[in-house]
Hints:
Chain A is α+β, with helices and mostly antiparallel strands. Chain A is built from 7 helices and 10 strands. The interface between A and B is large, with 51 and 51 residues.
Amino acid sequence: MRRIRLIIAYDGTNYSGWQIQENATTVEGVLHDALSELLSDMGHDGEVELIGASRTDAGVHAEGNVAVFDTEVQMAEEKFAYALNARLPEDIRVLRSEEVSDNFHPRYTPSHKTYVYQILNTRIPIPTLTRYMHHLYEDIDINMMRQAEDIFIGEHDFSAFCSAGAQVKSKVRTIESLKVYEEPLSGFGSGTEKGEALTDSANRGKIISIVVTGTGFLYNMVRIIAGTLIEVGLGRRDIDTVRRAILEGDRTDAGPTAPAKGLTLKRILYDTDQ
Amino acid sequence: MRRIRLIIAYDGTNYSGWQIQENATTVEGVLHDALSELLSDMGHDGEVELIGASRTDAGVHAEGNVAVFDTEVQMAEEKFAYALNARLPEDIRVLRSEEVSDNFHPRYTPSHKTYVYQILNTRIPIPTLTRYMHHLYEDIDINMMRQAEDIFIGEHDFSAFCSAGAQVKSKVRTIESLKVYEEPLSGFGSGTEKGEALTDSANRGKIISIVVTGTGFLYNMVRIIAGTLIEVGLGRRDIDTVRRAILEGDRTDAGPTAPAKGLTLKRILYDTDQ
């Protein structure tokens, strides 16, 4: 038996999240169907089990989710990506396929996940941007948000940053880095000639990105951190309340769960690959 | 009578271009319907005429197209944007509305239009990017493209860069600037801490942007320039052929029309506003 690892990217807009469900279209469901067909065509007997790394919510995007399956099918490891893409809709792509050790597990092998939460802060939303960004009309003070960055970093009990319904024993998680970035509206990177050439547009504003890396996350944790930082940036929640949320674990001390569309799972880096 | 100017942004994916058509959904058609309803509700008598600046093709996006209409309706100039947005689908937004002089005309008042053509140059397309970028598998040499930048700049007969069907007397146009930019795959701007943190992904590659500003463009001109520059970057068309295309006006010396989805009309700057 060989264990094949897939790196998967998707536009989550039209999916009810990653995890397979009875009466809804999910990324895992569509990928599982394509994989079952492919392996069956190649002579694989029986059901195929797909194990995913991150069960992203409905509407959340990914540029690097990870899944594995075991098969006896003889095909060059990198070919599975191309064969699957030929059977998948355009909004799901397998970016890479490769053979990994039998011991590798997408969820249990220690890893570092990087998520980005993007906010479009303009007077009026721009349709070419809002598919992957949460639009906010009110002017956000990014310096306020930056003052709260350090509060999240390290090993903490993130009970206040977890939606009800999570079935986990411990709510202690480690955030390795969290940074808030600001870009001019052109989207071409700050300070470049290209950026400068286009900033004098009708709808001045900025794009804010919250980039967070950690070894594990609770249900809705990144979206609640984003919702909390947004309230801080709007002057509606002070830094001390955020500190207390971490110390005391009261969900009401954290902000609301920010909308799914702004969140993208960027990358999962495994310790075994470094 | 007041003349009201609208700055309009749209995701062109689901539209058969700007210009109103009988049996197709177009941006102008949808905007005209919303405007007619709004003005009629406000007591405006008779048909409303909408005059657009750029008749973008099917699938082309805009972050700053311009249109005007005349009305006697008394409403604060900036309110038209909000009132129209309440009646428009989410993939069309009026970014600004303002009263302009009766002499202002979206097409005849001298202006500078900026278009961006975006290319995703990776092994496998990334679904969160390909809605607004043309995906190319083969590695493009951006330095080759840059060598061709200057050929286009200035006043030239662009007959070789115009699709058949254009009903114009003169094919002389002026390109004021043309620049080819490269960004790392993270999309966060080159050389930034954020960019660096995410470039080690499964699907290494780059985003190429062709930014072109001119006082007027022929039918499909920007897309044919992009198609030509792509061939130059792939080593399939040499710089001398591109020079000859400008000098002799033979369409076969230029490249193919690059796909619509990669093109965005970024901004139109009028001389009367400077």
